[in-house]
Specification:
With 480 residues, this protein is of the alpha/beta class. It folds into 3 domains: 188 residues, 3-Layer(bba) Sandwich (FAD/NAD(P)-binding domain); 99 residues, no CATH class; 104 residues, Polyamine Oxidase, Chain A, domain 2 (Alpha-Beta Complex). Helix content is 37%, strand content 25%. Strands 5, 6, 7, 14, 15, 16, 17 and 18 form an 8-stranded mixed beta sheet that branches. It is globular. The chain starts with 5 loop residues before the first strand and ends in a 6-residue tail after the last helix. The C terminus is likely disordered. The structure holds flavin-adenine dinucleotide. Flavin-adenine dinucleotide binds next to helix 1, strand 9, helix 15 and helix 16.
């Protein structure tokens, strides 16, 4: 093993962005990735059947950012492979399709008239409450009900959020709303919907996407870093982090069943912060480890199916806030870029949001595939005899769980880790931050920049802009 003293844990978007930026400044790094494939949560999986290649991202990955510099960077990396994709995203609620992000005018028109009246009354009542008493907002439910009224909120956000998170919205932190939908209320949405088109809003907007799937961005970053002498080692799990005197001094890792040690000048970590504090040597205080144990994640079971049909849906992806079906979302990769499936066939990725211990997690793959096909048949998407092949993938720690008390427990971890001047925690689980790729990329770039400039930049404010995620959730944003 060569001695590259800047060590990066994880070859996902954050870790590779750090390696990429260091490489741009001719600084080598050693990236250690525990899995056999790079990309982290933004991987593109490849399956072969009958001589055809099928690609799918591990869940829909639309890139968007407020930061034009990130688009420029990716454009440089991908060249003509960075293409514009038209998006059609809908949600199926109680058997009817509705636009996503929600179009309140369309929603009110299409629900039962009594429900529409109740939605409007709830909204008026909520607005009056907001204006007259400005009640305290603690939970995500408080936020949604206050800004949309209960029925509209239920229709638009609460159902689906509970399906993703697996806990009631009354236990989800209002700060999550702060990230996703801050400053938004029903007035804004109606106004935007009307202003935008002067009539019914178009469901289609567009976004940039790599022709070969989202991982292409990270493949290119890895290629560039390697071309400048960095090493990206796969199937290497970091198992111990040695420290002393306010510095990280070494790491230990396992590769091919053997343990190895490496001295550290700087450590950039995108591994889950909750795992990181548990492999410290000497160990972190018991209260920090306890806090780490109490921070949870939502996991996923994903089912990828090759289907004997040239097309299955018209959508890039579809949400299912209500049950049935029991999965929460499906995407058809071919609708992202046509060559992600062969011409005469298509494929679907169905996502279940679960906890690792759930029944579905332990169900044999054949039964999960059968259940998924059955539900897809119920939706009218395919017939069982059109299934050519299916695969199941279980993924841990897809979403950090921002419940109402997570923040003060997380502060215990970050407070203790602050003593290490050569440690940079970056990315989604690395910072326990419910983020998108752009946040991970920016934290990786900035951590590397700190090493380049010899001055530790503050990563805390990345992704905290008021308008960061919300427009993407509620109505189309401008993109680039
Ligand atoms: C279902 C889903 C849909 C999403 N959709 C979008 C979207 O539409 N748009 C968007 O912008 N973002 C989306 N995201 C978010 C996006 O995937 C993440 O923001 C991003 O991938 C996080 O990158 P990261 O590098 O911070 O973390 P990760 O991708 O989690 O990478 C961390 C890496 O560290 C490795 N690792 C962990 N422990 C160790 C260890 N001990 N030793 C060595 N390596 C280790 C892991 O294997 C992993 O590869 C979505 C996420 C999910 C789950």
């Amino acid at each position: 093993m060569i001695h590259l003293k800047h060590i990066i844990i994880g070859a996902g978007p954050a870790g590779l962005s750090a390696a990429y930026n260091l490489a741009r400044h001719d600084i080598g790094s050693l990236v250690l990735e525990k899995e056999s494939q790079i990309g982290g949560l933004a991987k593109t999986l490849e399956y072969e059947l009958d001589g055809g290649t099928y690609r799918t991202d591990t869940g829909p990955h639309r890139f968007f950012s407020q930061n034009p510099a990130l688009y420029k960077l990716i454009e440089e990396l991908l060249g003509p492979d960075w293409v514009v994709v038209d998006r059609l995203t809908r949600q199926l609620i109680d058997g009817k399709y509705f636009n996503y992000p929600v179009d309140i005018v369309q929603a009110l028109r299409n629900v039962n008239p009594f429900v529409a009246i109740k939605m409007m009354l709830d909204f008026v009542q909520a607005t009056a409450r907001k204006v007259l008493s400005n009640p305290k907002v603690v939970t995500f439910e408080d936020f949604v009900v206050l800004n949309f009224g209960r029925r509209l909120g239920q229709f638009n956000m609460l159902n689906y959020t509970e399906k993703i998170w697996g806990i009631p919205c009354s236990r989800i932190a209002a700060s999550w709303a702060g990230q996703r939908i801050k400053g938004m209320n029903a007035f804004d949405i109606v106004k935007k919907a009307l202003l935008k088109s002067g009539g019914p809003r178009s469901m289609v907007d567009s976004f940039y996407y790599p022709k070969r799937g989202i991982q292409e961005i990270y493949d290119k970053m890895a290629e560039f870093a390697a071309s400048k002498g960095s090493r990206i080692e796969k199937e290497v799990a970091v198992t111990r982090i040695v420290h002393g005197g306010g510095l990280i001094t070494a790491i230990e890792y396992e590769q091919g069943g053997k343990a190895a040690k490496e001295a550290v000048q700087n450590l950039i970590s995108s591994m889950p912060i909750t795992d990181l504090v548990k492999i410290m040597d000497p160990p972190a205080p018991a209260s920090v480890v306890e806090a780490a144990d109490s921070l949870g994640y939502r996991d996923q079971v994903q089912v990828f199916l090759i289907v004997d049909k040239p097309h299955i849906t018209k959508d890039t992806w579809i949400y299912f806030p209500t049950t049935p079906p029991t999965f929460g979302r499906v995407m058809e990769p071919k609708n992202w870029y046509p060559t992600l499936s062969p011409r005469n066939r298509s494929s679907l990725l169905a996502e279940y949001f679960v906890f690792k211990g759930d029944k579905l997690w332990f169900m044999p793959d054949e039964l999960i595939i059968k259940k998924t096909v059955h539900e897809l048949e119920w939706l009218g998407f395919m017939k069982p005899n059109q299934l050519l092949k299916g695969w199941v993938r279980r993924h841990e720690k897809s979403y950090p769980m921002w419940d109402i008390t997570y923040k003060h427990r997380l502060d215990k971890l970050t407070g203790w880790l602050k003593q290490f001047s050569n440690l940079y925690c970056i990315g989604r689980n690395g910072r326990y931050f419910y983020n998108n790729q752009d946040h991970s990329i920016e934290t990786g770039l900035l951590a590397a920049q700190s090493i380049v400039d010899g001055k530790k930049y503050d990563l805390d404010n990345i992704g905290m802009e008021n308008t960061y995620f919300e427009a993407g959730m509620l109505y189309a944003r401008g993109g680039k």
